[in-house]
Fold these 4 entries.
Entry 1:
Amino acid sequence: MAVNFDELSAQTDALRKDYTFLESFGVDAAKVHERSKVLELSFTENGATVQTFVKVYSYRTSPFQRLWRRGTARIEARNLLFFKSVGIPTPRVVAWGQRRNAIGTIVDDYIITEAIPETQTLDEFITSACPDRSQPLYRSRRDSIIDQLSHTTRAIHAHNFYHQDLKWRNILARINGDQTELFWIDCPKGDFTRSAAHQSRRALKDCATLDKLGRLHCTKEERLRFVAGYLDQPVDAPEVATFAQAIADYRRKRFDAEDLRQEQEAIEKRQAKANAAQSK
């Protein structure tokens, strides 16, 4: 079913609140100077205490960055509502809001989402709840995770939506009875596109982003299972091997090289700090 953009936009705008709502949480956005800040806070709704994550985005250090843009909070709220519409479990959006200055530039905005209890980020969950395939229970959980990821990634791409930050830390997992549940959370960069060139590149990027930690935590067979599920093809189909290689090539070029650069920078900083200490 095609996305009804008018309906999705209306649902998003219906959740907009002014800044008095944020202030009722005891948060003064004007005092947030980081690019983004996340707070775990609660509020009372219909007589019950609701645990939430309050995220504030600040654009004061680079005001021209947001001069003509729609604002991160609204985009993220819309994206979470889109996930829900295609059957991907995601946190409830409690509210979002934005504030502009006299010339229309967004200076800060916020989004509040309901916390999902008893969850871990996907990398933490894999390590603690199913570290390998040595036991049938572990194997079942891992296969469930892979199948859910392949199906949900295929689902968003089928609607010409691309996450663009599909990291394991943006996916929560928990055990509910005998089921392993996954929830997609932060998605401020995701968007729709009709450009075939953009679709191909962004689809590859989403899959390669998942593979960044997938290569460390998953077997080759598990990673091929993801690709087969994503393409809806048998695991031994030629298309699976071809796309798996494309994912690996993209990951090595974009992410592995960046990891090595950051690691080298960290080593150089530690060395510089040690040299400075010795010179005193």
Entry 2:
Amino acid sequence: MTRFASTLAAPAAMMMAVGSSPALAELPAPVRAMLDAAIASGNEADISAIARVAKSTNPEDAGEIDALVGSYRQTIAEMALQQKREAGFLDGWRGSGELGGFVTSGNTQSTGLSAGLTINKDGIQFRHKVRATVDYQRSDGLTTRNQWLASYEPNFRLNDGFYLFGLFMFEKDRFQGFADRLTLSGGFGYRAIDAARLKLDVKGGPAWRGTDWIADPRTDELEVLGGADLVWNIAPGIDFTNNAQAVWGSDNSTYSNTAAFTAKFSRALSGRLSYGLRHETNPPLASEKTDTVTRATIVYGF
């Protein structure tokens, strides 16, 4: 919302939209000037902080301050909704790229280079999530880590927090025993928590998974997929995310979880520390069941 407000809102028009109530004129001029400047900046953290200080120093004007800030937020929400209605498929995408290093345990114990890309679009009824990660290392002329993952998940909102989802996921990890793995899934999801600073989605449905094993014959299985995605804004500029997924099969099941802390350095740059775990219940004989990877990356948002 902050990025949207800072790029699309016209401050003069916003002041006219939220400043027409006669009651708002009762605010002391310095207080009104501070609130006007914060609203014109479009920075939600500044708006909340200044409004909180203004109410603590002018408790008799708390109602007027809440009305001013509330009117601004309603105007921004209406503008965002209208933009979503008018957006084409190529409009409204946001994303981030990250680059850094990793430390692994399990089938390989090493450090190396990690890169990732995430792109999202949140429309009126559709949401789109695209994600890709790569971990790679060479040592003494030999590749000791080469893991790829790419996924696309479209969602279609129904009502009361329910939605339909699809999932297309491609993986490659020769050190865990497979040359490539394709997973196709779909089913129902539900936004169990939808608070301002905390969101939790749970989903599940049937899945088909085809795996080209390096030392074993290819397997194609009809399986069951379940997942949970958590986003928690701990404080302004600090987020915690947790993505858990399980794929249950008759021959082999996969459990994965990635937890990450992200802290903003500036509007576009952030630092991220994440820990990922993947467990295969029945991997090839030469492979460990559990792999972990710890990543430290710099994230650029766009």
Entry 3:
Amino acid sequence: MTAAGAGPLAGRVAVVSGGGRGLGRAFCLALARQGARVVVNNRNRVVDADGRGPADDVVSEIVAFGGSAFAEYSDAASPASGDLMVEAALERWGRLDICVANAGIGVGGMFYKQPAVVFDEVLAVNLLGSIRLARAAMAVMRPAGYGRIILVASTGGLHGDIGLSAYAASKGGLLAFGRSLAAEGAGQGVLTNMLLPYALTQMTSGGMPADAARDRMTAEAVAPVLTALASQECTLNGEYIVTGGGLLRRASAVEWGTVSLPPGDSLTAAELASLLADSRRGEPREFGVSVDAFTDLAAFGGTG
């Protein structure tokens, strides 16, 4: 364990939304153990007999090993939440170096049955809450010429999921938003990456298979990747990083080979399927932002 005030993140200030339980708690503890001072955000939906909520408990754990932290109770669904979290860091420590947008909820239900108000609540917390925090953080980090933003997304946002359409939509939105933020912040020393964790937490326990993998899929196993992304030495930007149980994968959005449509103003379903199969045989390619992909496709068409 790193002594208080020492470690690779010594002198840095971090804000972690949804930091009271599960992944958020593991992130806060890991950052603090590496020397960062941490604003632990968590809305107080449940408190103990002394009026203490999850964020308070995490702060107590950090203080117990000599770290520095304090609790902040904004609800990520509130339009003011991002500003309040960042202002708390600035008022307490006068700076902000690391932003971890982690707050999230998952409400199961088939899309056609799920009330719109429930779908909207998931988007408000997972997507808009993260965007608001990132906006407030970016406003501080760009003038300072330094920042590390980590958006906690999900492979549900890459692949979709049955019965979790709202969650998938919110996390997919974060993936596209994060790539945009990465492109905008790179020239100002503000790097943004997306963490797609696999972990057994209070939100995911129902979907985890009952086998030996459960012992490996802990929130703590994800934290080393988070702290690496938060470090000054990290030069990664715009990455999708899938991790869990001591394992890691790089992920991305790709476009396969370019093929030409047949002449004429109609296309049959069979022809479309054949064209897609031809494209799939090409090499998958990544693009920094969508305009790069557009320019590449337009240039290909101009060579015909």
Entry 4:
Amino acid sequence: MSSGPSIYGLLAEFASAQALVTATRQAHETGYRHMDAFSPFPVEGLAEALGFHKSRMPLLVLIGGILGGVGGYFMQYYTAVIDYPINVGSRPLHSWPAFIPITFEMTILGAALFAVLGMLALNGLPMPYHPVFNVPRFALASRDRFFLCIEATDPQFDREGTRVFLTGLQPREVTEVAD
């Protein structure tokens, strides 16, 4: 990495979604791994071009469902058998068929809560500040422009070499992002 003021990375602006996907693929094939793309709408193939293949969301939802189900069942068992046992008509205190509806509902609730909180955590949300917000033209990312940011933390990042690489991808503009 060359010397100079500290920067977050280099941001390339593209006019179309296809140009962004093509540039991202080329950057990934060149060896860049610490990069992010910004677009005003979901772009098919962009996640694969960035190198995202697997998500931990299914595992988080499964864990949430299991914890919710076990928690719901234990809550009912504790209440009916340990804390406040009431023998009505010689029925068993641990009547598991009566516990199934609440156990099911708690499973769904646990899975849903883990899904929402896991999605927020894995996406790094809420994010009130990001260094790319300092680039004046980045406001167009919510309208009609597409951006690729190669971060300075990438092992292959070199300020001038990466700028030359991004310029070769035919962007509208390449901008340094201050840290």
